[in-house]
Amino acid sequence: MSFPTAHDLIARLEAGETTARQAAEASLATIERQNPQLNALLAVTAEQALADADAADARRQAGKPLSRLDGVPIAVKDNMCTRGVPTTCASRILENFRPPYDATAVRKLREAGAVLLGKANLDEFAMGSSNEFSAFGPARNPWNPECVPGGSSGGSAVAVASGMVPWSLGSDTGGSIRQPASFCGVVGMKPTYGRVSRYGLVAFASSLDQIGPFAQTVEDAALLLETIAGHDPLDSTSSTVDVPKYSETVRNGSLKGLKIGRPVEFFDVQGVDPEVTAALNAALDKAASEGAEIIDVHMPIATEYAVSAYYIIAAAEASSNLARYDGAHYGFRAPDTADIVEMFSKSRAQGFGAEVKRRIMLGTFVLSAETFDAYYVRAQKARTLIQRDYREALEKVDVIAAPTAPTAAFPLGSKLEDPVQMYLADIFTLSLNLAGYCGLSLPVGRTSAGLPIGLQLFGGAFEETRLLQAAWQVEQVVK
Amino acid sequence: MSETVRLDRVEEITLDRVRHVALLARLELGEEEAVRFSRELTGIMTHINKLGELDLEGVEPTSHAIPTANVFREDTARPGLSNDEGLANAPEKDEGCFKVPQII
Question: Average pLDDT of A83-89?
Answer without folding.
Answer: 97
